[in-house]
Amino acid sequence: MARYIGPKSRISRRFGEPIFGPDKVLAKRNFPPGQHGNDRRRKQSEYGLQLAEKQKAKYTYGVLERQFRNLFVKAAKSGGITGEVLLQLLESRLDNVVYRLGIAPTRAAARQLVNHKHIIVDGQVVRIPSYSVKPGQVIGVREKSKSLEVVSEALAGFNHSKYPWVEWDEHTKSGKFLHIPEREDIPENIKEQLIVELYSKQ
After folding, report:
1. Neighbouring residues of 7: CB distance < 8 A, sequence distance ≥ 6
2. Domain with 16 in it: what CATH number?
3. What is this structure's pTM?
4. Which of the 8 DSSP states describes residue 166?
């Protein structure tokens, strides 16, 4: 699956939740798209539920199939609870941390900031969205990029105490990745065990 650039409301309606952020269309049409979208009598198979959960996770974090599978393999080898570790690895991606710090309004916007060399990690420019941030590392905006409209608008009024695993310094426009988040702190509505069950069959 290539990076999805189509209508985001259509994907949100498929899963019944605003996985790309607040969605006015979803609020008005809270049923799947298509001719039979509002027919809720259809029952999904076990495989269908598992596949849908994996697709939801991939769309939510903006990760391609190969990247997602590689993260799953890494999580499975970690010795921890595979599903939880998978989400923790996704949360540790640089683009996601930039989003959690409020530097960008969406993960897609965060990915663009990273790609365009606007983001620094421990003072060095990192332009790899999938870069795995380690506890203690400081993520910030390059000096010449701090006046960017997308950054200032995203930071305006953002609640920086929202996520307990990151800490924001308003003066330096940078944030520290304090620790790997606990599963109960990750707000995404993802049933990771279904993803584990799906991959265990393959």
Report:
1. none
2. 1.10.1050.10
3. 0.82
4. E
